[in-house]
Structures are given as structure tokens and as C-alpha cells.
Request: fold
Amino acid sequence: MNLRLSLILAISLTFTGIFCWEMYWRSKPDLYRAVIEDDRNLWAEHRKKVEMATSDDIVILGASRTGFNFNTHVWEKTQGRKPINLAADGKPPRPFLKDIVYNTNFNGTLIIGITPLMWFSDPNDSWANGAKQWVDYYYNRTNAQKLGYILSKPLERNLVFLTSSELEFYNDLDLKSLIGRIYIPGRGNDEPFGLYNFSYHDEDRNLIMLPPMRSDPAFAKRITDAWNKFLPYLPEYETVENDIPNIINDYIRIINDFKARGGKVIFIRHKSEEPWNKAAMRLLPKEKVWDKFAAVIDCPTYHFKDYEFMSKYTLPDWSHMYGDDAKLYTKDMVEKLIADGHLKDFN
Reply:
């Protein structure tokens, strides 16, 4: 009898604790939402759509700016066709591009959003390796991993306290992150990189900026302070000058192979604010890198400095668009691509 009572008490305390913990984080809807984690599993789910895509379909590639700046729901409403969104936060698109070109028969349109630090980066750096791991995972997932993901979906959709990310944001709610935020003198976490997660996403993998990024300057400053921990220390162009021609030539080869089977590629250079742009241009000056790339790639290219509708929005963190602005930007961008004859209007 005592054992039964102890078991009932333990179960009751466990569920009470979980309930209180969940209610606490639900009381902060501006910072936390119950959503499926945008990890390699969700990406693989969307990557699978490419296998059945036709020449009329569109695949979006890019890093976080592309994920924030393009809204696939608005895109579908404007063009009449929803793109497959394979943009990935914190990951350069080159491994995903090579996967599509050399491992599929897709011959539709690739929309590639350009963040220079990601696009013109070392193809073997840690960021690129992270993207390669996602590609490898798509092909090598076990049945147990697929089942685990299916079973985790209902929990992630409904429990805020499961909020976490592969990128390990400072304010994730997993145990490792919570412990990491406990200050202990001498432990070495006096000044962590501390990049807060400042977005949530839907199941189409659209990244949506959290409201405090616009309403709370102190919260937005946490993000720009994190950028300021590395932007001033980006090296000069001379450190990569000898690598850029090889990077560009590699892209030419990949793009030409894709175009040879009827595919089309459109490049979109998203806006960045001056504090970010100034540092990035020190490493990758526009006239020496982007302009040379655009001149030889033989594809439509759109740079934010050339179009008013691409540059008119203020980016709260210097690098990504707020959700309401992204919807307008997407509509304008799609209408421009249709007007220029690069996309079909299916409406």
C-alpha cells in the first residue's frame, strides 16, 4: 500500500511540476512558441519534396536572411505556386545546391538568397560541414529516427518547454542551455557569445522574427551585441583574395551543369544594415566579389542596392527582416520576377 501511495504521489508531483513549468514558459508568448524544431528532420521532410518536383516548381536556397525575408505563404498567394523552402539558418547553401544538382533530376527554378559571408565562404569550414551533415542525414536516416521524429511532432507542437535548437541559442529551454545560463564565478561563462534565439518558425520553415525585436530595443540590442563580438574582427579581403576566383569558378561549373538540363537559377542579394555591411564588405568588397560573380554567372541577379523595394526596410538586428516587412518584400520580389519574365504567373 505504501509503495502504491508513493508511486501515485511521485506521478502526481511529476505531472504537477511539468504543468507548472509549461505554464511558466507559456506566460512569455513574445519569446517562446510551441513549434516543431527546425532541425535536420524538418529540413529532410521538405527536401523529399524535390524528388517529385517538376520544371514549374521553385526551390529556395539560402541561409537565415532568406529564411526570414521570404514568406512562402505570400509567395504562393502572389505567384499561385508555393516554393519548396530549403533555406537553413546558420548554414551556407552550397552543399544543398550541389545535392540538388548532382543527386536529383530537378530542372525547375532555384532561387538562391545570398549572404556573402555564407555564399563565398570556405567550402570546408564548420558551417559548410553542418550543411553537409543535413544532406547526409537525409540519405542515411534510419527507420528508428524517422519514427522518433513522427512521435515527437505532437509533443513539440504543444509543449513550449521543449523549445531547443541545433544551433544552441543562449535562451533555449533544454537542460544544457538552462544550466549554461547559471553564472558561476570562474567557470568561464562570464561573457558567452550569447546569441539569443529571436525568431520562431512555421512548418513551411519560414523564420518569423519575435515581436520584441521591434518593440523592445534592449532585446534587439542583445542580438546586435552578439554580432559585434565578431564583425569588427573579420579579416581584410587580402586574406581570401586568392580563394575567391576558385569559389566563383566552382559555382559556374555547378550552375552550368544545372542549366544544361533545363534548370534556371536566380540570385537575390538581400539587404544588410551598415554596421553589418561595412564589416562584411571589408572582407568581401562588392566590386571585387559580388560584381565579378554577377558578371560571369550568366543568371539573373538582384542586389538590394539596385532596387528601392529591396532596401527600404529597417532590419532590427542589422541582418534580417521583421515578419510584416518580409511579407511585403516577398510580394514585391515575386511580382518583380514575374514582370521580368523569370517566373510564371500561375494565378
User: Anything to note?
Assistant: Residues 51 and 105 are 8 Å apart (CA to CA).
